[in-house]
Specification:
The complex is a heterodimer. Chain A is an alpha/beta fold. Chain A is built from ten helices and eight strands. Chain B is mostly helical. The chains are: A alpha/beta, B mainly alpha.
């Protein structure tokens, strides 16, 4: 079984996680830029973070046989901080990078006017850079946030097929399904969605435009939730081909729209054991 | 050197890659700012394979050579050139940073780019560490920094064959450092990289 986790924050995870993910079948992932738990106070701490997403983290993932890509954006929460807004001005430099396969996470947190303008500006950047967009939906007032996100997508002129609306659940999936946007689901230990509920959503809405992720980060989360959902799908009557579609071909198709997804030379069996000198595997520092 | 670089690349580029490169070089020669969006796109248009298929994994790649060639086309000198090179490194992903490091000796920078070499040597990314110890690093690093760069190479598995200046710059202090490193490895029951003996005599204490 090959797995592509379309949303996971590896910066916050350990090398044990990389090993366990590889053993479970994960061969590729996308790490969206988001917030770090601790609010940032300057543009510099964003650019250092972005540098890690296009520098150190892909190198680290490569040591474990996993291909790393990322998305870059000013996240909705920090779009409200005047000290961070100027991040919007440096985004074009990063959106030109090889490993950047979408603009994201953009969208809403508390649905403020500042979030409106950052969201609209970054959808424009996605169009200008010919990149798909990854839209986070809020934890609070999620149904309203999802509806307003879809309106923003329509107003921007970006094609719905180039947008994923993420962190959906049974309540919010319907309108996104009808919009033509891709549907993202984050499978968490006890919030958002679980594997069984995900299987029921797939049974009701089908496997087209469906993306399943672990969204694992520094909070209570599980980087193997993609593999566990695959197992639950098989137990729930889906075929191996359905699993491959949802957990590999769909994310490849969505992020492949960037033209920058590089999955060449990925050996499905062996990690890149000698890749670039093994500097993380051996832990020689 | 620039003509040589372009000639070497000629054999390794597809027709569309070569067209992209020549158009990019022309645009940069006419307007330095044009390099900013072109520099990150080099691998996508021209490829990322080893430039010399016989060379090891730490040798130049096609996109390294493309980026080096583009840098030599910048119509800038002095502080303006140093600033642009510094920005391309600062905002570069790992491949772009490596491309800048590869090209430093081809550009008239004096010692202005030394901070970039130090930055790369502070990383744990072996591709950057190796590239930092190219001809520019070998010519400009002070003896202490150069020795520590070499020690970091044997520590992280960057072959010393990929490093510039070893024959001219190895000295008694470097040999002492390598012997101490070898002793620590032996004490830990771990293998000693063969490269250590390029610098120090295995029979010496």
């Amino acid at each position: 079984m090959r797995i592509f986790d379309p949303h996971i924050h590896m910066t916050s995870r350990s090398t044990d996680d990389y090993e366990a993910m590889y053993a479970a079948g994960v061969r590729a992932l996308v790490e969206p830029a988001f917030w770090l738990g601790q609010p940032r106070t300057s543009v510099g701490s964003f650019t250092d973070y972005f540098d890690g997403l296009v520098g150190w983290e892909p190198f680290r993932a490569g040591q474990f046989g996993i291909r790393h890509h990322c998305t870059i954006a000013l996240n909705p929460k920090e779009a409200n901080d005047p000290r961070c807004r100027a991040v919007l001005d440096v985004l074009p430099r990063y959106l030109a990078k090889d490993g950047v396969v979408a603009v994201g996470e953009i969208g809403y947190d508390a649905m403020t006017p500042d979030e409106d303008s950052a969201f609209a500006a970054q959808l424009r950047l996605a169009i200008e850079h010919d990149l798909p967009a990854l839209v986070h939906t809020p934890h609070r007032d999620k149904a309203m946030g999802t509806r307003r996100s879809l309106e923003m997508v329509t107003e921007s002129g970006i094609l719905p097929g180039r947008v994923v609306i993420d962190h959906l659940n049974e309540v919010t999936v319907g309108p996104v399904h009808d919009s033509g946007c891709w549907m993202g689901f984050s499978i968490y230990p006890d919030t958002k969605m679980d594997e069984e509920r995900m299987v029921r959503v797939l049974a009701e809405y089908g496997t087209d435009r469906m993306l399943v992720n672990s969204a694992a980060d520094w909070g209570r989360s599980d980087p193997l939730k993609t593999a566990k959902t695959a197992t639950a799908m098989l137990a729930g009557g889906f075929t191996e081909d359905d699993v491959d579609k949802v957990l590999w071909r769909n994310p490849v198709a969505f992020y492949g729209q960037s033209g920058r997804l590089d999955l060449g030379d990925l050996d499905p069996a062996e990690p890149a054991a000698t890749y670039a000198g093994n500097s993380v595997l051996r832990g020689e520092r | 050197m620039n003509g040589e670089l372009r000639k070497t690349l000629g054999a390794r580029l597809t027709e569309s890659g070569a067209q992209w490169l020549d158009a990019a070089a022309e645009r940069i020669a006419a307007d330095a700012d044009a390099i900013r969006p072109l520099f990150p796109a080099a691998g996508r248009h021209c490829g990322r394979a080893q430039l010399d298929p016989e060379a090891g994994e730490h040798g130049w790649t096609v996109d390294d050579a493309v980026r080096a060639f583009l840098l030599t086309r910048l119509p800038l000198t002095g502080p303006a050139l140093a600033k642009e090179v510094d920005d391309l490194y600062r905002y570069g992903d790992a491949a772009e940073k490596r491309g800048v490091l590869r090209a430093l000796h081809l550009l008239d920078l004096g010692d202005e780019a030394l901070p970039l070499v130090h930055d790369a040597l502070r990383t744990n990314d072996t591709r950057l560490i190796g590239a930092a110890l190219g001809p520019y690093g070998a010519a400009h690093l002070d003896p202490h920094a150069y020795r520590h760069g070499l020690l970091k190479c044997v520590f992280t598995g960057v072959p010393l064959a990929e490093v510039a200046g070893l024959r001219e710059r190895r000295d008694a202090e470097l040999a002492r450092m390598f012997r101490a490193f070898a002793r620590e490895r032996v004490a830990a029951g771990r293998p000693v990289p063969a490269d250590v003996w390029l610098v120090t005599d295995p029979e010496e204490d």
